Amino acid sequence: MTYYVWLQNYINHKSPIGDLANDAKNDSSFPIDLTSLSELKNHLRKMNAVPEAMKIAESSFEKYKKENPIS
Q1: Rounded mean pLDDT of the chain?
Q2: 52 pLDDT above the threshold of 90
Q3: Whole-model pTM?
Q4: Measured distance CA(50)–CA(70) in Å, rounded
Q5: CATH number of domain containing 23
């Protein structure tokens, strides 16, 4: 399972990860096949993400990796 597919489980959740999921869903340039945290952070930097969004991205990617250790 990709990070993007995993993140979609949080669409409409009232949480920071839910906010990120909604943003990703509405971002036509979101890298749906990304495989690393650095790819995610690079994209968010290009989108001028605020520092809090970067922290949420890091924690969500860590959670994704724990739940999907082979990915």
Answers
A1: 96
A2: yes
A3: 0.90
A4: 30
A5: 1.10.150
Q: Among 1, 19, 2, which Cα is nearest to 10's?
A: 19
Query: Domain containing 61: what range?
Result: 3-67
Query: Is there a contact between 54 and 40 (Cβ–Cβ < 8 Å)?
Result: no
Q: Domain total for the chain?
A: 1
DSSP state for residue 13 in the 8-state scheme: -
CA distance 3 to 1: 7
User: What element of type H or E holds 41?
Assistant: helix 37-46
Q: pLDDT tens digits, residue range 5-51?
A: 999 999 999 999 999 999 999 999 999 999 999 999 999 999 999 99
